[in-house]
TrEMBL record:
Coiled coil: none annotated. Residues 5-148, 269-331 form the FAD-binding domain. Belongs to the paxM FAD-dependent monooxygenase family. This is Related to salicylate hydroxylase. It comes from Phialocephala subalpina.
């Protein structure tokens, strides 16, 4: 394997930028191809547990965003509540600082896995030693790799998001002051509905995500929604939750979708692989989608420091990452069931276990489970990759 690879990354989101950083640290040339006019991110809050933040700290990205996150030390690294825009901005800055080339308005129209060539919509052809598809849930790279791959599946849930600026809220409101001055993550669980609230940007913003049964038409993924309709869906819930929702006149609702597990992420040529949501999209109930994407990038970058053929690098990458991401995706889907239980004895037993002071094994709230939580949060992606250095896959 050449020591200075030319790597093309399709997609300039969290996955693409993270891969660029990891691969630049490995000493290879990187070009990111982003279809949109600029590197940006829609949405609001992200929660990053220790398995993700230890990667960002190792890369030095924490120094670019530390002022914008809420910290809580756990499992040997911080837990962060962070705005997506702030994360993307920091990752973009770090990728550029490390020497990655970032090209916008560079939509990919075709790939040749055998040669590692990429054709842009404007007809330009780029050649790489390795091409990485990091183009998200609706990945064109994935469809090219697996032509008969199934379309994203509907989960029966849809989500709303509300982002409030503290300066726009009623002054001296005791409930809002409680949320912003005593940082915490608050969950409301009810039949077929749940909501989560946490703060962003040093307590200057309140982020709410609410999940309800999907009522969007089959062909519609995202649509505007009057706040009155959301309030009606949460009728009878905690007045504080309703007060938060009522602060905005309109929000958007979007379908929560997932895709079936892939049997392979890479092409046999050793010149192409998938990363992040393009390979393993997950539901948001464990807040791990971005985290396991960072893990992918860190593992792949570490493996690319080893002077072995690319096909063997990618085989190692899949052997390390696929079992873990499969487990995380399944666990997140399991949380969907527990969060939305109807009022019945199983729900009361769930509440009893979740409210116990001492965590119990098989806790429905997996962040507390004494077996699952250390496995999830204690993961060190770079160390997992280093374990297989010198060990050749079959």
């Amino acid at each position: 394997m050449a020591r200075d690879l030319k790597v093309l990354i399709i997609g300039g989101g969290i996955g693409g930028l993270s891969a660029a950083i990891a691969i630049r640290f490995a000493g290879h040339s990187v070009t990111i191809l982003e279809a949109e006019e600029e590197i940006t991110e829609v949405g609001a809050g992200l929660q990053f547990s220790a398995n993700a933040t230890r990667i960002l700290i190792k890369w030095g990205v924490d120094k670019l965003i530390v002022k914008d996150v809420h910290h809580l030390e756990t499992n040997g690294a911080p837990f962060w509540d962070i705005h997506r825009h702030d994360l993307i901005k920091a990752l973009h800055s770090m990728a550029l600082e490390l020497g990655a080339e970032v090209r916008v308005q560079s939509r990919v129209s075709d790939l040749d896995f055998g040669t590692g060539s990429v054709v842009l919509q404007n007809g330009e052809v780029l050649q790489g030693d390795l091409v990485i598809g990091a183009d998200g849930l609706n990945s064109t790279c994935r469809k090219k790799l697996i032509p008969d791959d199934e379309e994203p599946e509907f989960t029966g849930d849809m989500a709303f998001r509300v982002l409030l600026n503290l300066e726009d809220l009623p002054p001296n409101d005791p409930d809002f002051l409680e949320i912003t001055t005593r940082p915490q993550c608050t969950y409301w669980l009810g039949p077929s509905h749940h909501a989560i609230v946490y703060i962003l940007r040093g307590g200057t913003q309140i982020n709410l995500v609410a999940v309800v049964p999907d009522d969007l038409p089959r062909g519609v993924v995202r649509a505007p929604c009057d706040t009155g309709g959301v309030l009606k869906l949460f009728e009878g819930f905690d007045p504080l939750l309703l007060e938060i929702i009522s602060q905005v006149p309109q929000t958007f609702k979007w379908k929560l979708r997932i895709r079936p597990e892939l049997k392979k992420w890479s092409h046999d040529s050793g010149k192409f692989t998938l990363l992040g949501d393009a390979a393993h999209p997950t539901l948001p109930y464990l807040s791990q989608g971005a985290g396991i994407t960072l893990e992918d990038a860190a593992v792949l970058g570490q493996l690319l420091t080893e002077p072995i053929p690319l096909a063997k690098v990618l085989a190692k990458y899949e052997s390390i990452r696929r079992p873990r991401t499969t487990s995380v995706v399944k666990a997140s889907s399991q949380q969907q069931y527990w969060y939305n239980l109807p009022d019945r004895p199983e729900q009361r037993e769930r509440d009893r276990i979740m409210s116990a002071e001492i965590p119990q094994e098989e806790d429905p709230f997996l962040w507390k489970d004494p077996v699952f939580a250390p496995w999830l949060f204690g993961y060190d992606a770079h160390e997992e990759a280093r374990k297989v250095v010198g060990k050749y896959p079959l």
